């Protein structure tokens, strides 16, 4: 039997119409979003993956992955990274991204349950298993670092409580509380097809360039799945567009919303690329131009035949590419006493690299802050911000982004809804709120929760204890135990020396 025949049996002959209950009663969620589907048999998985092929393919990848992880651990691979500053990128990835893989696993399981097409259910089931596997392999790969560096030990607890981790957490909770079609558009298309290259490609390249072969290996292991997810995400959008013309305005609104939400989430990635990798691969600006402006531009040019246009506010994202990473690093430097990663002022050669990558903006708008902090630290007065930042009601990033076209002014938008004022970092976030205010007035904003006394107590030590954030995991890298240990280990390590 050919793969095509096996796939047809899996995705067609296992589907049937219910008789004891109506199909609408069994699948109540695939109509309320307004998406019209005339023919579910039009849904085709472009890979036509069958169950036996799926398990065989994945088991082979697992064997190779764990063999390399064993070798990495037995050879103390953690000592081969560029220096201990790099490990902070892994801390951010483990606490910020790995839980999202688990959330995606749950989300696709729920989406599959609520779509009445058998092909769609099978595709969601396989992606759900993929996402669970990704979470597991990331945790296993990074676990070696937990034995030697601070800040890894309580990552699931931190994901639920730490202030900056509410940014990725709120993104997925927003998607998982949407309907099944919006969830798939948000995750499979807008994030995985349009934006995921900006996360995985620079991060895995950065891991390779900085000597972290364990992380590179899980990246390669996940990449074939990601390619399948990306292709499926595009096919899902095309499927909906081809089913009925009435679907176009709904899908365009979702594309606009989830592009902006994903772009704001990638603020953390921009900071990682420009500041947290001791050996740089490319700047955030270069990555944005390559993976969104060129590749994404080609994608939306292809989708124009369906009537889909470029996401709203993509021009604003392009204007911010010169500033995004510097603004994010500034936020974390200010509030580093309450973060589970270390920050630092870049070394002189790294500042020269930033000047070269951002010749029109860095020296004028961002270098003066870094020089001031550098002088303060040398004088024994490391700067930390004693207050709490105002957060955007939508993306939950501290409101430090700049007005479009004016990097000297902080962007500030405000909406009054049912007598309360809500604040936003951008027009993109403000628009999303206006479309669904009932949803976003319920947002769990970390700073608001601290002021309301819901985070362990009114003092900083009480809040940090509620975060389970140990003092050695926070603060400046120059003063950290991670740095002291690293210098002791590598001085004793002839290979590293």
Automatic annotation (TrEMBL):
InterPro entries: Ferritin-like_SF (IPR009078), Phenol_Hydrox (IPR003430), RNR-like (IPR012348), YHS_dom (IPR007029). Signal peptide: none annotated. Residues 403-444 form the YHS domain. The keyword Oxidoreductase applies. It holds the Pfam family Phenol_Hydrox. GO terms for molecular function: monooxygenase activity. Keywords: Monooxygenase, Oxidoreductase. This is YHS domain-containing protein. The lineage of its organism: Bacteria, Pseudomonadati, Pseudomonadota, Betaproteobacteria, Burkholderiales.
